[in-house]
Amino acid sequence: MTDRYLFLGDSVTDCDRQRSVKQPNRAEALGYGWVNRVATELLAKEPTTKVWNRGFGGCRVNELLTHDWCPLKQTRGSDFTCITLMLGINDIWYPMSDHEYPDIKRILAEFDHLLDRLQPLAERLLIMEPFAIPGTATMEQWWPPLQEMQTGMGALVAERKLAWLPLQAGFSTQSSEQPALWAYDGVHPEVLGHQWLAEQWLQCNG
C-alpha cells in the first residue's frame, strides 16, 4: 500500500504553497519550508509515497476544517499513513495583538474537536507543539497563555494516546545564539528553523 502523508497547519506549514496545485509531491504545492524538506527525504526513500501540504496561512484552530484541507474526495478511515498537525499560534497572536487574553478553554475545546475529526482518518496522528521565540512580532505577554495552551494540548494528546512532538524547548535552545536565522519575527521559521523542524519530524517518524 502506498504511504500517504498529510500535513495540516497554519503559515508555518503553508510556506507559500501554490494552493491551485492539488496533486501530491509537486514542489510548488509543498511550499518552501520544512514540509518540502520532509517530502524530499520520504520520496528519496520511496518514490511511490504521496505527500500533501494543506497548511493555511493565518489559520486558527477552529478554522482548519472550513478550508479545503482533505485531498481525498472520500474518506473511509485510516486513509493516511500519517496526518501531522501543527496549529494554535494564531490563537495566541490575534487576541494578544488586540490586547486581549486568549480564551484558552475555548481553544482547547476546539482543538479536541479537531482531533476527534482527524484521528479516524490516519493510522498515526502526530501533533507538533506550536511554538514561538522572542522576535519582531512576539511580545513577553505571549508566554503565559502560550505555555498554558501548549500544556493543555499536550494533555489532550496524551489522553487520546496520540503522538506528541514537543518543539518549544528545543527550538528555544537551538535558536538562542542566532535567533534571526531561526525565526526572525519569532513565529515564522527561517532557513535553520525549517531545517530543524524537518529533522525533528523525520526523527520522530524514523
From TrEMBL:
UniProt cross-references to InterPro entries, sorted A to Z: GDSL_Rv0518-like, SGNH_hydro, SGNH_hydro_sf
Any matching Pfam family: Lipase_GDSL_2
SUPFAM superfamilies: SGNH hydrolase
Highest taxon above the source species: Bacteria
Coiled coil region boundaries: none
SGNH hydrolase-type esterase domain span: 7-195
Listed name of the protein: GDSL-type esterase/lipase family protein
Organism: Saccharospirillum mangrovi
